[in-house]
Structures are given as structure tokens and as C-alpha cells.
Design goal:
The complex is a heterodimer of chains A (332) and B (388).
Chain A (H helix, E strand, L loop, with lengths): L1 H27 L5 H11 L6 H10 L6 H13 L5 E2 L4 E2 H36 L4 H15 L2 H15 L19 H38 L2 H8 L4 H7 L1 H11 L1 H18 L5 H10 L3 H29 L1 H5 L6
Antiparallel strand pairs in A: 1-2
Helix pairs in contact in A: 1-14, 5-6, 5-8, 5-12, 5-14, 6-8, 7-8, 7-12, 8-11, 8-12, 12-13, 12-14, 13-14
Chain B lengths: L25 H8 L2 H11 L1 H18 L1 H4 L20 E4 L2 E15 L4 E13 L1 E11 L3 E9 L18 H37 L1 H15 L3 H10 L7 H14 L2 H15 L3 H8 L4 H38 L10 H6 L4 H6 L5 H23 L7
Antiparallel strand pairs in B: 1-2, 2-3, 4-5
Helix pairs in contact in B: 2-14, 3-5, 3-14, 5-6, 5-8, 5-9, 5-11, 6-9, 9-11, 10-11, 11-14
Classes of the chains: A mainly alpha (332), B alpha+beta (388).
Chain lengths: 332, 388
């Protein structure tokens, strides 16, 4: 277990480093930088910008040095908790990020939980009742769920809520609590509003997981040991829970590796559509205005969130299944 | 021995032909003589939903070849008197008399209390549709100036089957033109991802060793990244002032650039299994180069699987483009894709008043569903020798 943990930790750190380089390259890609954009804006307002001021701005933001130096600066700062400065908000990035990362984690975790809690019983039902109306119904819903892009689902839900109730279901808490310090009632309000985005983001994942669990379980149910146990008169429920379900459960849980990036991706666009106070809308705005540090921080945070989530789930899985921790690289 | 007395046991008097046991019925003959691709076709044909989806997609792709005559209006034709006009329904009978397909003309009134534009069908204005008629002039395929349309409104009338947008442009026509971009983005993106996945997966699986290790780590990292935020970041990096065509190509490259790891992984695992086969060793012994062994002997083995899995990843691309354009990071007007059309529906208040702005949602879902069903059918058919 210890060896496995160390190896896994090492790959995670290597991944994070590679990701940070990638993120840095991406945010450097657009031609020009913030200062050029800022200066064009000033000039369009009729303000004259002197060469000296440009040079000063560049020096202040460290834009006059080589990319490698800028990267090292950036990554060292992040390790010390300094994510740089948001040009757009005129605030340190950490202050803009604030609660949003926490809320993002809450939304993502709730969605993952929702997917597992819903798809598990439904998947088992579909497999044990193969070719019944219930199974067909679930398959149909699954196909529809997979084919409906989540941001369009969000849009349709917003539209219907507006049409039927005349209210907006956007947001993640009662407007009362926005910008208020955290309290129990605020947390409760978040919980109350959480189900809509969770439902929207989780639909596709749930549909996929139901299909997967159904296929896994059906594979197991058709094996000979099940027939033997049945022939020996084992009670059906006990038979199901004791052997095939356990076997089918492992790939089901291991699939979090595919699920997590998908959920994080979905959350970004759904929260942009539903204007949730999570990372999505700010990332979008930052990308549009080329607010480099802000966009980079959010991108990095999202990637770290995903990679770390996968790390944790891998450890849990290894604790659950000795085959994983004992073979050097067994999985996928 | 006497000739007249029959033997004690039964002997068949029919002429003896040892091959008789092996004679095949016509059906079996057909089955054994069939090539792999024929068998796949037979198998695919049994999958009704997949065949229907394939037909729908084929019709859509043929449709984008002839968008101009297919659409009743041009992409940018504005009807300034009909802003946010609701969809008109086609009728056949007027006052119980058969007139052929026609629409009722719209009467416009500004509701002074809600300041909403209100259009009501006027039962006295019968506007029969015209077919193969002269309408907005266009340049077919950018070469031939023409003005024929499949269907046009009556002279001086209107024909908005899906309503109009905030500039009075016909939604149906824009949807038909938008399909051009939305449907091809997926194909181009998939082509890029196909080449990348095949090359990297092929190298990784065939050569193994350190290069395999490097590529595998790369794939692991790429798969652990959330796709959409990266797409967003990359397309935000595309300069706004570029030519629309260049932006379109950039977006397809971006979509294809992040999608290859799944494919590369599949190619690698297949190659790893197949390169141990005897025929592969034989080819190597005879001095075949790696590219020939891979391309000539190994690839055809799992080409059908690749095609099936490619079909299943086209919808991801289409949705990616739709999402990006919807957010304003992908394609921008005047380029028109379904995502660009949908970005007009971002304002939920406008959508509640003019729900027909949401029609692109339906076309996106139909396309994605069709690709999914087609891919499922292809995947089942990809291995015709395998029986459940």
C-alpha cells in the first residue's frame, strides 16, 4: 500500500507540474498582453499614454522578462499562496477567487454523489429486470440524457421555470445571502438551491453510469457460478448482493476517472449559463478580457481539483481492491 | 455370390459422392463467400434505429450541399417589418376549400401596454406557397449566380416556418445555413483527432519502450484534464480580428487537439495484442518496414472498430463547437452555426417572449442522437464474426 501511495503521489505531482506548464502556455498564447489591451482601451477613450508609462506598467507586471522567468515567478508565487493580480478587478486573484472555489467544490462533489446515489439502484434494477418495460424506459431516458447537452438542458429549465413560475432558478443561494459571511442559514440556502445545477450537470453522467453498471452486472449475472448458486437454491437477493454485485461494483467505482473531468467540464458551462457564483462565469469573463492571471488561476484550480479528486478516489479504490495496490500498474 | 439376392442390410443405391455432406445451401454459400465488409453491412442492416439514423444524417449532409436553394431566404436577408415574428403554420384548406399549401399573412400590432410586438395571422390573407420559384438571389457554391429556391413565400407575402429573430431574419433559413458549419466542424475535428490518435497510438503500441511510456503519461495527463475549460481557454486565444474562415479552422483544430487520447489508447491496446501474431512476425521477417506492417497488416484488423468509435465521438465535437459559440468564445457572427444562433437565446427574458429562438436546440439534439444510434449500430456491426 505504501509503495502504491508513493508512486501515485509522484505521478500526481508530475501531472500537476505538466498541467501548470500547459496552463501557462495557454494563457500566454493570445497575441499581445494585458498592458497592450489596457493601453488600446485608454487610447480609445482619448487618453494619451506615454512610452514611459507603458514601460512602467510592463515592468510592474513583469511582462518585460522572458517567458521562463515569468513562469517560474508565477509558479513560485502560487506555491506561496500568491496567485497574482487580477487586472480586471484590480484585486489580488485570491480575493476574486474567494468563496467561488469552495462553492465549485460543493457543486462538483454534490453532483458526483448524486450520480452514484441515483445510478446505482437504477443500474441494478435495469440489469436484474433485463428486457422489461422498466429496463427499456431507463435505456430510453439514458439515451436522451446522454444526447442532451447540459447547458441546453440548463437553458430549457431556466425557460420553463420562467414560463411556469415567473421566477429565475439561477443562482446558488437566496439573493439575501450574497456577499454575506457564511452562516448556517446561508449554507441551508445553498443546499436548497443546489439541486437544480446538480440535476442539470449530473444527467449525462447518471445516464452513462446506469448503462455501465447494467452492462457490468449483466456480464456477471450470465456467468456459471451464478447459475450454480441458483441451482443450489441460494436466495436470489442474497445471491445478487453477495457475489455479482460486488464484482460489478469495482469498475463502477473506478469509473470516477472518466466521470470527474466530465463533471468539472459540465459545471463550468452550466454555471456560466445559470450564473452560479462558482468558478465558471468568472473564468469565462477572465478569458474574454484576457485577464491572464485570473484565467490561469481558475484553469489551474479546476485542473488541480480534478487531478486531486482522482488521486483520492484512486487511493480509496486501492484500499477497496487489493488487486490494484498489489500489481504495479493494474488499472485501465 | 448370387446377384439376385439382396444384401441383408440396407445399402443406398444412389451414386456415391463423398462431398455431399459438405454441400452448402445457397444461403450458407452466400455467407461464406461474403467479404468482411458485406457481412458488416448485413449485420448493420438489422439494426433498424441505426439505419434510420444513418439515413437522417445522410439527408442532413446532402442538405448542406444545397443550403442555398433549400432555404426559403438567404442567410442575412432581413425582413425589417417582421422582427421577432412567430412561426407561421402551413394550411391546406381555406374555409373548407382546398387551396394547396398556403400560410395566412401576418398582421402587425404594437401592444402599447407591454411594448411587445404582436403578430396575428390574418384569415383574409391567403398566401399560397410557390415551389421552385425565384426568390433572393445567391451565388451557388460561390460560383454560379442563381435565384431559384425550393419553396418561397407568395409574391409580397412571408414564409417564416420557424419565426424570425431580432433582425427579422428567417430562423429556418439560418438553421439550414448553420448546419453547414455545425455539421462539418465535427468531421474536420474528428479527422485531426484521427490522424493524431492513429500516429501516436501506433507508435506507442508498436515500438513500446520509453516512447510508449512518454506517450502513455501524456495521455494520462490529458485525460485527467477537464476538456471544456481548456477548449474555452484555447479558443479565447484565437484573435478576434482574424478572418472568419481562419477562426473556423482554428476552432476545429482546437476541438481535434484534445480528443485524441481515447483513440490513441484504443489503437495501442489493439496493436499490442496483434503484433504478437504470426503473420506479423512473418511480414517483419520478409523485411517489411514498420509503417507497412502497421498500415497493411495490423490496421485493417481493427479499422471497423475505429470507424465506429469515431462516429461516437463526432457528437462531442459538435457539442463542443455549440458550447463554445454559445459562450461567445468560438465562432462569431457573421459566421452562423447552431451555437451562434443559440447565443441569441442566452437572454432568458427574450426566450420567454419568443420561444422559437430555441429551435436550434432541437436540431442539435437530433443530430447528436442520430450519431449516437449510428455509432452503436456500427459498433455492433464492426465485428461480424462475433456472435452473442
Amino acid at each position: 500500500m505504501y509503495v502504491y501511495l508513493m508512486r501515485r503521489l509522484f505521478t500526481m505531482i508530475a501531472s500537476l507540474l505538466a498541467i501548470s506548464v500547459l496552463v501557462f502556455v495557454i494563457i500566454q498564447l493570445p497575441p499581445g498582453d494585458f498592458v497592450t489591451a489596457y493601453i488600446t482601451e485608454l487610447e480609445s477613450q482619448g487618453e494619451m499614454v506615454s512610452e514611459e508609462k507603458i514601460a512602467f506598467l510592463r515592468r510592474q507586471y513583469g511582462l518585460d522578462r522572458s517567458p521562463v522567468e515569468q513562469y517560474v515567478d508565477w509558479i513560485l508565487g502560487i506555491l506561496q499562496g500568491d496567485f497574482g493580480y487580477s487586472f480586471e478587478y484590480n484585486l489580488p486573484v485570491t480575493e476574486v477567487v474567494g468563496d467561488r472555489v469552495l462553492l465549485s467544490i460543493v457543486v462538483n462533489a454534490a453532483t458526483i454523489l448524486f450520480i452514484y446515489v441515483v445510478s446505482f439502484p437504477l443500474g441494478v434494477y435495469a440489469a436484474t429486470h433485463q428486457y422489461t418495460w422498466g429496463d427499456y424506459g431507463l435505456s430510453f431516458l439514458g439515451f436522451l440524457g446522454l444526447a442532451t447537452p447540459n447547458f441546453l438542458l440548463a437553458l430549457v429549465l431556466l425557460y420553463l421555470a420562467n414560463l411556469w413560475f415567473g421566477t429565475s432558478i439561477g443562482g446558488l443561494m437566496d439573493p439575501l445571502y450574497i456577499d454575506q459571511p457564511w452562516s448556517l442559514s446561508k449554507a441551508l440556502s445553498v443546499l436548497e438551491h443546489l439541486w437544480v445545477p446538480v440535476l442539470v450537470i449530473g444527467t449525462a453522467g447518471t445516464a452513462g453510469m446506469i448503462r455501465r453498471l447494467r452492462a457490468n452486472l449483466l456480464d456477471e449475472l450470465n456467468k456459471q457460478y451464478v447459475v450454480t448458486a441458483k441451482a443450489k437454491g441460494m436466495a436470489p437477493r442474497r445471491l445478487l448482493v453477495k457475489y455479482p454485485l460486488r464484482m460489478a461494483l469495482n469498475p463502477f467505482i473506478a469509473d470516477i476517472g472518466n466521470l470527474l473531468p466530465q463533471v468539472v467540464s459540465g459545471a463550468v458551462i452550466v454555471s456560466a449559463v445559470m450564473s452560479l457564483p462558482t468558478t465558471g462565469p468568472v473564468l469565462l469573463a477572465a478569458l474574454q478580457s484576457q485577464d491572464i492571471y485570473l484565467a490561469g488561476s481558475f484553469l489551474l484550480l479546476l485542473a488541480v481539483l480534478t487531478v486531486f479528486g482522482m488521486f483520492v478516489s484512486d487511493l480509496l479504490l486501492a484500499a477497496l481492491d487489493p488487486r490494484i495496490r498489489l500489481t504495479s500498474r493494474g488499472r485501465r | 455370390m448370387s446377384d439376385s439376392r439382396p444384401l441383408e442390410h440396407h445399402v443406398s443405391r444412389a451414386p456415391f459422392a463423398p462431398e455431399d455432406d459438405h454441400v452448402l445451401t445457397a444461403d450458407q454459400e452466400r455467407l461464406y463467400a461474403a467479404s468482411q465488409w458485406t457481412m458488416m453491412w448485413w449485420r448493420f442492416r438489422r439494426h433498424r434505429l441505426a439505419v434510420a439514423s444513418g439515413a437522417v444524417l445522410l439527408a442532413m449532409y446532402l442538405g448542406i450541399l444545397v443550403s442555398e436553394p433549400l432555404a426559403p431566404y438567404n442567410l442575412h436577408s432581413r425582413n425589417v417589418d417582421f422582427i421577432h415574428a412567430p412561426p407561421q403554420t402551413v394550411h391546406l384548406f381555406h374555409d373548407g376549400v382546398f387551396v394547396g399549401p398556403f400560410v395566412y399573412g401576418l398582421d402587425y400590432r404594437l401592444n402599447m401596454t407591454s411594448l411587445k410586438r404582436e403578430y396575428t395571422p390574418d384569415p383574409t390573407k391567403v398566401q399560397p406557397l410557390r415551389f421552385l420559384c425565384r426568390g433572393d438571389p445567391y451565388v451557388f457554391w460561390g460560383l454560379i449566380p442563381m435565384d431559384r429556391h425550393l419553396v418561397c413565400p407568395a409574391e409580397g407575402g412571408t414564409l417564416f416556418l420557424l419565426g424570425t429573430d431580432r433582425l427579422g431574419r428567417d430562423m429556418l433559413s439560418r438553421l439550414i445555413y448553420g448546419a453547414r458549419i455545425s455539421l462539418t466542424v465535427g468531421l474536420l475535428g474528428i479527422a485531426i483527432s484521427f490522424v493524431l490518435g492513429l500516429t501516436l497510438g501506433g507508435i506507442s503500441g508498436y515500438f513500446g519502450g520509453w516512447i510508449d511510456n512518454v506517450i502513455q503519461r501524456l495521455i494520462e495527463i490529458m485525460r485527467s484534464l477537464p476538456e471544456l475549460p481548456l477548449w474555452m481557454a484555447l479558443s479565447a486565444a484565437v484573435p478576434i480580428n482574424w478572418d472568419p474562415v481562419a477562426v473556423y479552422f482554428c476552432i476545429t483544430v482546437i476541438l481535434g487537439l484534445l480528443d485524441w487520447p481515447g483513440l490513441a489508447r484504443a489503437v495501442r491496446s489493439k496493436l499490442l495484442a496483434l503484433k504478437e501474431e504470426d503473420y506479423c512476425t512473418a511480414a517483419e521477417m520478409m523485411g517489411a518496414k514498420p509503417s507497412r506492417v502497421i498500415g497493411h497488416h495490423l490496421l485493417p484488423n481493427f479499422m471497423s472498430h475505429l470507424i465506429a468509435s469515431l462516429t461516437l465521438s463526432v457528437p462531442t465535437m459538435i457539442l463542443g463547437e455549440t458550447a463554445l459559440s454559445f459562450l461567445g468564445l468560438g465562432l462569431r457572427p457573421p459566421v452562423t452555426s447552431w451555437g451562434v444562433l443559440l447565443s441569441e437565446a442566452q437572454n432568458i427574458e427574450a426566450v420567454v417572449l419568443y420561444p422559437w429562438l430555441m429551435t436550434p436546440v432541437a436540431s442539435v439534439i437530433v443530430t447528436v442522437l442520430a450519431f449516437n444510434f449510428l455509432g452503436d449500430g456500427l459498433r455492433d456491426a464492426a465485428d461480424p464474426y462475433h456472435h452473442h
